[in-house]
TrEMBL record:
Keywords: Membrane, Transmembrane, Transmembrane helix
Superkingdom classification of source: Bacteria
Descriptive protein name: Acyltransferase 3 domain-containing protein
Organism: BD1-7 clade bacterium
Membrane in keyword set: yes
Length: 79
């Protein structure tokens, strides 16, 4: 069983990685919208970028669900 310190450390790392992904995609979006050149629009709005976004979204969702399951044991949430 994992200790509380390990749970907090893993949660912090996952939050930091999620924050980096959000910042990265936000700046890509802002560049595409504020400076609408063909290359910036093609960089952000293409199938490859959508696939990467979907992958990070699913990975983040998995980590959040997994983290909640671990925290539930320590925070006595639910039954």
């Amino acid at each position: 069983m994992e200790s509380k310190e390990n749970i907090v450390a893993l949660t912090s790392i996952r939050f930091f990685l999620s924050l980096l992904v959000v910042i990265y995609h936000t700046q890509l979006y802002l560049v595409a919208v504020l400076f609408p050149t063909t290359s910036s629009l093609n960089t952000y709005f293409n199938f490859g970028q959508t696939a990467v976004d979907a992958f990070f979204f699913l990975a983040d969702l998995f980590f959040r669900i997994n983290t909640f399951k671990h925290l539930k044991k320590y925070l006595y949430i639910g039954t």
